[in-house]
Design goal:
This protein is mainly alpha-helical. It has 2 domains: 96 residues, Tyrosine recombinase, N-terminal domain (DNA polymerase, domain 1); 185 residues, Intergrase catalytic core (hpI Integrase, Chain A, Orthogonal Bundle), CATH 1.10.443.10. The chain is built from 13 helices and 3 strands, in the order αααααααβββαααααα. The longest helix is centred in the N-terminal third of the chain and has 20 residues.
């Protein structure tokens, strides 16, 4: 979700087009990492633009509009659009820091709305298994889109069971693909690093994208965007929503509530149906403990699963 960050100059607490409260606050963050500053600038810009577009606000932001109701409503909207809990938590943190600055440095706010807003935890749902028709529609949409980057993004989720963070933080130096073989090193989240051998259904679109997909060659990351050196998790979710937006009415009825995360869940179901053991599925997906054993709740004694053993079963996936 991208919005213009443009504000008109007005009275006390309003956001000028240039040199305003947001710009002044961003300057106060000097010393923080460039990625953190860019995240705050982007997320706050989108949130303040959203506030300015609420009824009665005339496209202008005033500090007294930064309320718990506004933040709670905005976060709920992000959730409805498919943004992850971690993304919403980053937005809340950015808003909280900005509100604290408005209180302490500008005396334009009396209380911090972020302290009054909670983000409900993700419900523990069973991993989703897609129907044959849902798989057909999604794969057809990717083929019709005819885009190298989109095909590679989809393949990593559908055919390799990657987390969205695995994809967003995948580095070019960790991709080893050729005409007939391919493997990647993934695992942005702590303790989840692993080497994944790839099916041709992943290797080929990834190889095509790296060769002719129009990525920024100066970025250390595989998936890049026009706005930053990497395509963020939010950017991947946005791409997936856009992909689904190309569906016709009957197709949309089938796939409307499917998320990128569901591709990973469905991969696990298909792997089990292909004869993979729970230990092998856990190994490939990165569900392991710090000691390297599969993190599956059972009292059974696990046999050690190897990368080579898992590789031999990849071709069984349908």
């Amino acid at each position: 979700m991208r919005r213009k960050n443009s504000y008109q100059k007005g009275g006390t607490g309003q956001m000028p087009r240039k040199g305003g409260l947001l710009d002044e606050y961003i300057l106060s963050l000097a010393g923080r990492s460039a990625s953190t500053i860019e995240t705050y600038r982007r997320e706050l810009g989108q949130f303040l633009h959203w506030i300015g577009s609420r009824p009665g606000n005339s496209q202008r932001f005033r500090a007294d509009q930064l309320t718990a109701t506004a933040l709670e409503t905005y976060l709920a909207q992000l959730g409805a659009e498919g943004h992850s809990i971690s993304h919403r938590a980053r937005v809340k943190s950015a808003v909280g820091g900005f509100a604290r600055w408005l209180i302490e440095e500008k005396s334009l706010l009396r209380r911090n709305p972020a302290r009054q807003v909670t983000i409900p935890p993700q419900p523990l749902l069973a991993p989703r298994e897609l129907t044959i028709d849902q798989r057909y529609v999604l794969r057809s949409l990717v083929e019709r889109e005819d885009d190298c980057r989109g095909a590679a993004l989809f393949a990593l989720g559908y055919w390799a069971g990657c987390r969205v963070s695995d994809v967003a933080w995948l580095r070019a130096e960790d991709v080893h693909v050729g005409p007939k073989v391919g493997w990647i090193h993934v695992g942005y989240k702590g303790g989840k690093e692993r080497d994944l051998d790839l099916l041709n259904a992943v290797r080929k679109p990834l190889c095509d994208y790296l060769r002719e997909g129009g990525r920024d060659p100066d970025s250390p990351y595989v998936f890049t965007s026009q706005r930053a050196e990497r395509l963020t998790e939010a950017g991947i979710h946005h791409w997936f929503r856009t992909l689904k937006g190309e569906a016709n009415k009957k197709e949309a009825d089938l796939i409307g509530d499917i998320t990128y995360h569901d591709l990973r869940h469905d991969w696990a179901h298909r792997a089990r149906q292909a004869g993979w053991s729970l230990e092998e599925v856990a190994y490939y997906l990165g569900h392991v403990t710090r000691k390297g054993t599969p993190a599956i709740q059972t009292t059974a004694r696990y046999t050690q699963v190897s990368r080579e053993a898992v590789k031999q079963k990849l071709h069984l996936l349908s």
